[in-house]
Design brief:
The complex is a heterodimer.
Chain A lengths: L6 H18 L1 H4 L3 H23 L12 H12 L3 H11 L6 E8 L4 E7 L1 H24 L6 H23 L3 H19 L6 H32 L4 H6 L1 H9 L3 H15 L8 H4 L5 H10 L3 H14 L5 H22 L3 H21 L6 H26 L15 H15 L5 H14 L2 H5 L1 H30 L9 H7 L22 H20 L4 H9 L19 H18 L1 H12 L5 H23 L4 H23 L4 H7 L7 H19 L3 H21 L3 H22 L11 H27 L9 H13 L4 H9 L1 H33 L1
Antiparallel strand pairs in A: 1-2
Helix pairs in contact in A: 1-3, 1-7, 3-6, 3-7, 6-7, 6-14, 6-18, 6-24, 7-8, 8-9, 9-12, 12-15, 14-18, 15-17, 16-17, 16-22, 17-18, 17-22, 18-19, 18-20, 18-24, 19-22, 19-24, 20-24, 20-26, 22-26, 29-34, 31-32, 32-33, 35-36, 36-37
Chain B lengths: L7 H4 L14 H24 L7 H19 L4 H4 L2 H22 L10 E2 L5 E2 L1 H28 L1
Antiparallel strand pairs in B: 1-2
Helix pairs in contact in B: 2-3, 3-6, 5-6
Chain lengths: ~850, ~160
């Protein structure tokens, strides 16, 4: 089947169209807007699936049977740095299974285009995005309360659907700049969605922190992308990745290291890796469907996805493994440790999510690229389920605190089973997907070429992985047993809660209330988690066959991945199984020892500063600096502003004239001829100087104003002597109008006062005036001198062109309204805007007393 | 300037009409009537001849605003001149200038903003004159806005 190339932009832009409908039709649609998301996601999902099957990018290249030799082949391949790139090229060469590509010119001057490319990794990601989007959209229609303002619901869905489109864009973009654009759209929509309950302080703060961290990271990433673009002379990802020449050019460039660090800045902030991990737990104030979709299943995986896209470019860097392994491992183990301590359900899930993201970053650092799709898919399935389960629990009990929950099994039977399936998968027990993924991970770690090279790191890393997984194992049991078993502890038991509960009050975090007063589970709420939970089970069971292995290897960012995936542990190589058993044993210990361990953890936490507090301090100092600087610079004194502007003008002009042009003021003065100056001109100059001195020494404003006017008219007489009627006319009229202005404003000005420092201030003003006068003097002198003319004879040029090209004899006017009309237009706009500003300000002044009276 | 100088006029209550609301001296009014009309005519001439002789939209506009200032001095804030929404005049001027420039982008051979064409019918007229008309109106509009508003402020 031939897939048309326009399919890709249609996949990406369908959600944006739906988002626009949700936004503008929100008032009319209300909660029905959720169905828009369902329809859009369904459309995208089926189109993605069609593309995947139709173009045959998955599996077409793979040799499933090669397995035993595969692990050895992989070992050698990873050892050679360019091995992965070779694999990627293999797909390119294979025309029968070439990925669908779409190119539409966008900014040709910079070689930026709407380039989409559906390779297997991108399609896999797009399928996860649209598939979970479908479930989350369906869940949302039953979760978002009906009693909210309609346009607010519309805005919610518009953000959520636009987010889906942006994620699909990230997955399918083949252009670095396009990818960046979609990346930033996800940051913005995430900000809007985290801040959905914007009445609450912590929602606003969570949204801000997320936007600050991911926004800064995104900007860093853009800088990195531009560096790559400059070095490779193209922004097309597939072109860079598939060309060994370009790859070696980039690796040899001095920008290689900085670009890597900057792009990691983007990936680490988006995927909330240590030390930027803190925004994700704060983002959990979002409505639960949002947390599920953005902050567990898709958006936070964008950073991982980016690393998956970029590794062929960067893996030869000396920073690659150290950075990824360090940050990934710290995130992986530290957040697993933290998750065990938390009591808020969403906080627990946020931390375990971080943990998995850290794990994927780490395996990228270990160059075990064939693991990525497996771990991402596994995590999306169970974590999506658990978030949705938490949403139902919160819906029913209005709390997420583990200390206040318990015994919900009877009230929420289907939810309970969803939770069991997903949590057991998270714990990594057979026959669930989690077990399969963990076995594969351990096998891959044991067999890792990088760790074989750095033997000292091997067992510490594997040990930490086991301990972290053990923490997650214990957390899984905490979820199942703590929430659903034992006695009921929550205040909102089903029979009393409805009467006690008032609509519209969301203070205890019970956001997801609906109108029906039904506080159990409903079909719309439990169906999506059930689907996802059954995925964990079915995929796990399928692990007994080769299907899963075939699929996840096909989906991986590495073209010829050979991850060993099976449900049935191999008895000839039982080491992964031993590690799994160790994990389970340690996890059981942690679970039973949870009280003393948690107490010890809290004791440690109170001592250490958190990254959040450091970030707050940093942000606070930024605002403090901005405030201080603004207060110092924007001090509200007109004299200060004018001095600043004039001194800038003086500095820039003098620097340009004297510092660079090779012009000399002496040369200009030597050319001045005093012979032709008529005698009365000297008298005029004397009058001018006298008038200027009068301005500076005048005791009253009126006197100063009159002296200024006198100066202006005397200057126009100078132009009379030199026979320049145009300028004389302008000068006289401008002087007249300025005088009217000054007289009008004079009324509002205070008298000159004898205050402390007034003399000094006046002296300073005279100095500034002299500097400006000297600058203009030097400028005029040099611009009219002979040394300037031969190089830049603008005047002569314009004079020659005026009549033929402008059909006017007045050169000045032709320049203004014809040759430089676009400059004049700019000035005109400024004049109009200034006029309207003055009008507005004076109107506002006049309005004030009336408002006070009313 | 936060601190206003308190002289006697500033202290008078707002409901007592100050001298600016009334007609100024009869001499001033009589002179202004003729002088302003004459100035306005001269401003139009200066505007029109600007393409070939000293003048142009800017100077013409300034001169016309000076004529307006004369009327304001004579009749104060109650004259019809003070009641015109002058900022609209400047906006109309801006629209005229922009339209001329953009239309010429499509019409002129080079396709540049405000490239020049001369109309030969019904009168010999360079297209730049339309642009200049916009400049003329903008200058009048903005200056008069400021004069009228500052004048009203003073009258309070």
């Amino acid at each position: 089947m031939v897939i048309p190339d326009w399919m890709l932009p249609v996949i990406v832009f369908t959600p944006f169209a739906a988002a626009a409908v949700a936004l503008f039709g929100g008032k009319w649609l209300g909660t029905r807007a959720g169905w828009l998301m369902v329809v859009a996601a369904l459309a995208c999902f089926s189109m993605t699936l069609t593309t995947m099957v139709g173009s045959g990018v998955v599996g077409g290249h793979h040799d499933v049977e090669v397995k035993d030799s595969g692990s050895e082949a992989r070992a050698t391949e990873v050892a050679a740095p360019a091995g992965g790139a070779d694999g990627a090229r293999g797909v390119e060469a294979d025309d029968a299974h070439a990925p669908v590509t779409f190119v539409q010119e966008w900014i040709p001057d910079f070689d930026i285009a709407l380039r989409f490319r559906a390779d297997s990794f991108g399609l896999f990601f797009a399928m996860v995005i649209s598939g979970i989007g479908l479930l989350v959209g369906f869940y949302s229609t039953h979760y978002i309360p009906n009693d909210l303002a309609k346009n607010r619901v519309g805005r919610y869905y518009a953000s959520l659907i636009a987010f889906m489109g942006a994620m699909l864009g990230i997955a399918l973009s083949d252009d670095l700049i396009l990818l960046f654009v979609f990346w930033e759209i996800t940051s913005i929509t995430s900000f809007m969605l985290i801040g959905f309950w914007y009445e609450q302080d912590h929602a606003r703060k969570g949204a801000w922190t997320a936007l600050q961290v991911t926004g800064l990271g995104g900007l860093a990433m853009m800088a990195g992308f531009i560096m790559i673009g400059i070095t490779a002379d193209t922004f097309t990802i597939s072109e860079i990745v598939s060309s060994p020449d370009l790859l070696s050019t980039i690796a040899a460039s001095p920008l290689f290291g900085p670009a890597l660090l900057l792009i990691f800045g983007g990936a680490f902030t988006k995927s909330a890796q240590w030390p930027f991990h803190f925004w994700l737990p704060n983002a959990m104030v979002a409505p639960t469907p949002v947390s599920t979709y953005l902050h567990a299943a898709t958006m936070v995986k964008a950073g991982v996805f980016l690393v998956g896209r970029m590794w062929p470019i960067f893996e030869s860097s000396p920073y690659w493994s150290p950075l990824l392994v360090t940050c990934g491992l710290i995130t992986f183990s530290y957040t697993a440790y933290q998750a065990f301590k938390e009591t808020d359900l969403k906080a627990i899930l946020a931390r375990t999510t971080l943990s998995t993201l850290g794990l994927v970053m780490m395996i990228y650092g270990l160059k075990a690229y064939d693991q990525d799709a497996l771990q991402i898919l596994n995590h999306a399935a169970y974590k999506g389920t658990l978030f949705l389960v938490v949403g139902i629990v919160e819906h029913a009990t209005h709390t997420r605190d583990l200390n206040k929950l318990g015994g919900l099994r009877k009230q929420l039977p289907v939810t309970f089973w969803c939770c069991v399936l997903a949590a057991l998968s998270m714990a990594g027990l057979p026959p669930f997907f989690g077990f399969v993924a963990k076995e594969s991970l351990y096998a891959s770690l044991l067999d890792n070429a990088f760790l074989a090279e750095h033997a000292a790191l091997k067992w510490p890393i594997i040990g930490l992985a086991v301990v972290s997984n053990a923490f997650i194992f214990a957390v899984s049991w905490k979820l199942i047993l703590g929430v659903f078993c034992g006695p009921r502890k929550d205040a909102h038991s089903p029979d009393v809660s409805h009467d006690a509960h008032e609509h519209g009050q969301h203070e205890d975090g019970g956001h997801g209330e609906d109108d029906h007063g039904h506080h159990g589970e409903s079909f719309g709420l439990w169906l999506p988690p059930l689907v996802l939970a059954s995925v964990t089970l079915i995929v796990g069971l399928l692990g007994a066959t080769k299907v899963v292995e075939f699929l996840v290897n096909g989906f991986s960012s590495k073209a010829d991945a050979h991850a060993h995936v099976t449900l049935i542990p191999s008895l000839s190589h039982p080491e992964p199984l031993y590690l799994s058993l160790a994990t389970i044993g340690l996890g059981v210990l942690f679970y039973f020892g949870r009280r003393p361990i948690n107490a010890a953890q809290r004791g440690v936490d109170n001592v250490l500063p958190t990254m959040q507090s450091l970030w707050d301090v940093a942000m606070h100092s930024v605002t403090a600096f901005a405030t201080g600087y603004s207060k110092w610079w924007q001090r509200g004194s007109l004299r200060w502003y004018i001095t600043g502007i004039l001194m800038f003008f003086v500095g820039l002009t003098l620097w340009t004239l004297l510092g660079r042009g090779g012009l000399s003021i002496h040369g200009a003065i030597e050319q001045v001829q005093f012979a032709g100056v008529p005698w009365y001109a000297y008298g005029l100059f004397a009058l001018l100087i006298w008038a200027a001195l009068t301005v500076a020494t005048s005791k009253t404003r009126l006197g100063a104003a009159i002296a200024i006017t006198a100066t202006g008219f005397l200057v126009s007489l100078v132009f009379v002597i030199y026979r320049s009627p145009d300028i004389v006319l302008t000068q006289i009229l401008i002087e007249t109008v300025s005088t009217i202005f000054i007289l009008l404003i004079l009324y509002f000005m205070p008298k000159f006062k004898k205050e402390r420092g007034a003399d000094f201030r006046r002296f300073f003003c005279v100095l500034v005036s002299c500097a400006v006068g000297f600058t203009m003097f030097a400028f005029t002198l040099m611009a009219t001198s002979e040394q300037f003319k031969p190089k830049n004879n603008l005047a002569g040029d314009y004079l020659n062109r005026t009549l033929p090209e402008g059909d006017g004899a007045n050169a000045v006017n032709v320049i203004i309204v014809d040759f430089r009309a676009i400059d004049t237009t700019g000035e005109l706009i400024v004049v109009v805007v200034v006029g309207m500003c003055i009008f507005g300000l004076l109107q506002a002044r006049r309005m004030k007393p009336k408002e006070v009276d009313a | 300037m936060t601190e206003r100088d308190h002289n006697t006029t500033a202290d008078t209550p707002a409901d007592i009409p100050s001298s600016h609301d009334e007609k100024g001296s009869p001499v001033l009014c009589t002179v202004a009537k003729f002088a302003a009309t004459l100035t306005l005519l001269v401003s139009l001439i200066i505007f029109y001849q600007g393409h070939n002789l000293p003048g142009g939209g800017f100077i013409g506009g300034v001169l016309a605003a000076a004529a307006g200032a004369m009327v304001l001095l004579g009749w104060g804030a109650n004259s019809w001149v003070a009641r015109i929404a002058w900022w609209r005049v400047s906006v109309v001027g801006l629209l005229i200038s922009l339209t001329t420039g953009v239309v010429l982008m499509f019409v002129s051979p080079s396709g540049d903003f405000m490239d020049h064409i001369t109309l030969h019918w019904p009168i010999h007229l360079p297209t730049a004159t339309f642009f200049d008309l916009g400049v003329y109106l903008i200058v009048i509009g903005t200056l008069m806005t400021v004069f009228v508003e500052l004048g009203k402020e003073e009258g309070r």
